[in-house]
Write a structure and sequence with these properties.
single chain
């Protein structure tokens, strides 16, 4: 369980680094940086929810509880994309999607 929370620091930190880069090099920087931050959050917020859910189970994990947790992650990821598309009209899709993919790939980099 401890490793699930340790992995968040990598994705979160890298998404914040990407947000800073979008802020520095994209004109105008405000909407791009916020979009990049939201893209990173779309990656790590569902994982934090999954890890918190596992922590509350405290040793009673089953295959079904993992499947429900993964379904919760997928549902919350989709819900966050939809919420941003509907309610944040100034979204910059390139920074959002690039930062999301960067944060998503930190898991593969961490395994290497």
């Amino acid at each position: 369980m401890r490793y699930a929370f340790q992995g968040r620091g990598n994705a979160n930190g890298l998404s914040l680094d990407a947000t800073l880069l979008w802020w520095l090099f994209y004109k105008p920087p405000g909407a791009a940086a916020l979009s990049a931050f939201l893209g990173g959050a779309i990656c790590w917020v569902p994982d934090v929810l999954f890890a918190a859910r596992l922590r509350t189970l405290s040793g009673t994990e089953t295959v079904m509880s993992w499947m429900i947790g993964e379904a919760l992650k997928m549902g919350s990821t989709i819900a966050m994309f939809v919420a941003i598309a509907f309610w944040y009209h100034d979204v910059r899709w390139v920074p959002l999607l690039v930062t999301y993919l960067i944060a998503l790939k930190t898991y593969w980099i961490a395994l290497a």
